[in-house]
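As the next step, I selected for study one protein, both as residues and as discrete backbone shape codes, as given directly below:
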Amino acid sequence: MIKQITKQLDHEKGKARDRARNPEYQERFREEGQHFDRGGTSIPKIITFRGSIAYLDKRPFYMDDKQSLIRTLEAIKFLVAGQLNTISKLLKNPAVAAEAADRFERTKLSILRADQITSTATHPKTGRQFPVIPFKCFLQPADPLPEPIFKKCLAFSAVFPSPDRAK
């Protein structure tokens, strides 16, 4: 295993060395100096420090909770045009597939865009406080959704638009 990693690193070093010897790159090295862009992406930092204060970027954790909520909604039964079933089963039904796909896509986009914390809720078992983020649910659940829906870091509250505005 270690031998494979060493071989990979040696290969990458050799490629970088070959590019550095290329005349086009040598010109760019001279022109750009210290500001030469070697490409790639920077790794986002979860914790940053400003003076003696540490800041925690919670966006990756919130995005995980949003994806988890979408997976949870996929397992719940919804009523679409008189048909009652889970999203995956509704998408296989040709009579309601288009409408179910449209409504679920709009619900997913609403979840992913939701960022306004409106209140806090206490988890009934742990007693921990969670920030509550509302999202629009364009699907009618067969049974009422729990209010709010708790995840690891956030709690979500479903807002159902009126039927005439749902389109």
In short: Strands lie at 47-50, 53-56, 78-80, 83-85, 119-122, 129-136, 140-141, 149-150, 155-159.
